[in-house]
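Record 1 of the preview.
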Amino acid sequence: MSVHVRVQADPLDLAALLALVQAPSLGGVAVFLGTVRDHHAGRAVVRLEYEAYPQMAEAEMRKIAEEAKGRFGVARIAVAHRTGRLEIGETSVAVVVGSAHRREALEACRFVIDTLKRTAPIWKRELYEDGAAWIEGEG
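->
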């Protein structure tokens, strides 16, 4: 399978995602991991909560990955996104791209995460010691 996408409550398995995109003919593998940080916009973040409509999110993720394959000529892409409660330091999203060369892998990886953040029906709620806020887009 040249494109693998998944929305899941379980922790992401980077080794499994890497295995989906590696091959003897592919010399470039690019990885982006989004992790829960302890601050945003000057506020201390306690944890995050992600919600998604998995079928719609996975369809959008697949569309983005297929576009990246065509646009950048990469061979394989795996994208996984967590839902539910995530603690500081946990990985919320992973994009892994396998290509013959590094430049295409890196460009495709950036395109996928940037587009996913703008268009996928996945919602992030930041929880602070004194409240919470829904974060849209690039946050």
